[in-house]
Design brief:
126 residues, mainly alpha, 6 helices
Length: 126
């Protein structure tokens, strides 16, 4: 999630600032299609996003959408400041579970956002 979904979620902020929310929505449609196509080929049960490290169809698609939604909900500036601080201060900045738990504690994420990462949700909406 740290190597794939986080950079993509940050890039979507640039897409929105340059092309608008419709551009992001169009990319979400493509990510959902890829996620569903790749998910049908997966023989094992899908884990929640907090445990999805190294599962490409989850990280690059569903993980990106969930992190983008989270960033938009708490505010892109707050999210980006948190990311910068976490990267510079974390002892192991590659563990998504640690990132998520610290973010959840710092920003008091509501149940809707927590479900995106802690439960297997089929759909991520803007």
């Amino acid at each position: 999630m740290i190597w794939t979904a986080l950079p993509c979620a940050l890039a979507l902020q640039i897409v929105e600032s340059r092309g608008g929310i419709r551009e992001v929505e169009a990319l979400f449609v493509k990510m959902r299609k890829t996620y569903h196509k790749d998910r049908t080929n997966e023989p094992i049960k899908e884990p929640p996003l907090i445990f999805a490290d190294h599962i490409d169809y989850l990280e690059g698609n569903k993980g990106t959408m969930a992190l983008y939604k989270l960033a938009g909900t708490i505010g892109f500036d707050r999210f980006n400041r948190f990311v910068g601080k976490w990267v510079t201060e974390s002892e192991d900045p590659l563990v998504f579970y640690d990132f998520y738990e610290k973010l959840k504690k710092k920003h008091g994420l509501g149940p809707e956002l927590c479900r995106l990462f802690e439960e297997v949700e089929d759909h991520v909406a803007l």
